[in-house]
Amino acid sequence: MTRMKTDPPKKYRDFVARYPKLAEAWDALHEAGATGPLDDKTQRLVKLAVAIGGLREGAVHASARKALDMGITIEELEQVVALAAGTMGMPATVAAFTWVRDVTHKSQA
Fold this sequence. Notes:
Number of strands: 0
Largest sheet: none
Order of helices and strands: HHHHHH
Strand content: under 5%
Number of helices: 6
Distance between the termini: 13 Å
Helix content: over 70%
């Protein structure tokens, strides 16, 4: 499945327009964290896992959207969610599953 790269949500774009220095700092943090041996796909899946573990719905949405844009499959995203069950328990894992599906099912529309 080929997917067009999506733009960040309007609320994010509005925030960045209002606070450009924060956006620059955010970009610098991202760049610094990306330096290392992990490839882009692995980095994205780890970021998704961290967002799930932190119960950050917006970050899960963003990570899932970015992952799809990179060509990561829905099955791979869902496996990351499934791996969380043993650590997080079922209620939190089901919540994360719904957040990922918010994005993956929208992409199939």
